[in-house]
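Weekly structure sync, notes
Attendees: PL (lead), two postdocs, one rotation student
Agenda item 3: pending single-chain targets
PL asked that the sequence for the first pending target be pasted directly into the notes so everyone works from the same version. It is reproduced below exactly as submitted, 239 residues in total.
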Amino acid sequence: MVITSVFITPFFLLVWVLTFWWDKRRLVAHMMGTFWAWHYQSLIIFWKLRLEGRKKIPWNRPVVLVANHRSLVDILALYKVRRPFKWVSKAENFRLPFIGMVLSLSNCIRINRESLRSGLQFISQAEKEMKKGSSVMIFPEGTRSKTKEMRPFRDGAFILAKKMNSGIIPIVHTGTENAFPRGKNAWVLKGRTRINIRVLDEIPAEQVANMETEALKQYTREIMEQGIARLESENLRIN
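Predicted structure, written out during the meeting:
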């Protein structure tokens, strides 16, 4: 990954230089990030990635996208939706080689999980990008789960959706935890892995507006738990 990034990075920078002055949403930069992710999705031949429901995500209408978080591979895998959005990512990821550059040049949203002020800045930044027409992708758990059970959800995604009067589209996935598990060998890719991603039905803006934040958070979590359970069950039948 490091070696191939040496070749991809200059091309990415060239595209950004040629487009940043007119592409205010950084759509071209985001699609370059998508190409970068596709490159690795294809290069690692023992990953089998399957995505359902891409067309449920709009191109030009901003929504809040929420996905479960199991592994570092989640970022690579979820680029497969091939729709314009801004990642909300912890500050540490912006310091990673190449990944940090892609996040920065694509106008993705930085958040420091230890800072209350950073949480307020996240809402402000996300609001700014959504007003331009971009969706926002958030892991509501805040960090990767150590098990297949989701961690408690944080409020940010749901406060943002209510403030922007937007819909919420849940995305569930399974299998990434087998490709890049946590622990002392976290940077060692494992063997053959089936990664399944499913875009669920949108929770419409009207419903978001009519629910309290806590109720909306719990409702979304229940939908995602059911979606993950179905994916796990289907994967067991396939295997």
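Discussion points:
- Residues 213-238 form the longest helix (26 residues).
- The domain at 2-238 is CATH 3.40.1130 (Glycerol-3-phosphate (1)-acyltransferase).
Action: rotation student to compare against the earlier draft before next sync.
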